[in-house]
């Protein structure tokens, strides 16, 4: 098999410039939530955080009117560092869903939100009453028309 000397010279010249091998990309390691949790626990140990007992649930009121509700919450506190952690499963709920249980927890800042909720409830009740009244009325019959004619 004859080899063209010009092509061979070009290949040798090009290969002389290449030193080393092809670049190997570093593998991207995804952090797991478990690793983050252990790192957080280690940091809390350094801060001497203590577990607070007797807290059954926690509610965080957001500005948009929704509530982050933690049921069976774990609370740790490092008061010297003004650090508090709440761990558990958080559910985002609306205020009307939690009203009976959280009335004692509501403060002055949530009073306006509670008033708006009461106005909405009254408005929906007032709007429902006239609609029900209209449905109860019996339509008037005109002369010459019967129900049987409308059915056919």
Automatic annotation (TrEMBL):
Keyword Lipid metabolism part of the UniProt annotation: no
- List, alphabetically, the GO terms of the cellular component aspect: nascent polypeptide-associated complex
Task: Tell where it localizes.
Answer: Cytoplasm
Q: Which PROSITE patterns match?
A: NAC_AB (PS51151)
Keyword terms, alphabetized: Protein transport, Repressor, Transcription, Transcription regulation, Transport
User: Phosphoprotein: present as a keyword of the record?
Assistant: no
Q: Give the main location.
A: cytoplasm
Q: Which CDD domains match?
A: NAC_BTF3 (cd22055)
Give the region (Disordered) as residue ranges: 124-152
Q: How does it assemble?
A: Part of the nascent polypeptide-associated complex (NAC), consisting of EGD2 and EGD1. NAC associates with ribosomes via EGD1.
Q: Which PANTHER family match?
A: TRANSCRIPTION FACTOR BTF3 FAMILY MEMBER (PTHR10351)
Q: Which family does it belong to?
A: Belongs to the NAC-beta family.
- Name of the protein in question: Nascent polypeptide-associated complex subunit beta
Organism of origin is Pichia angusta
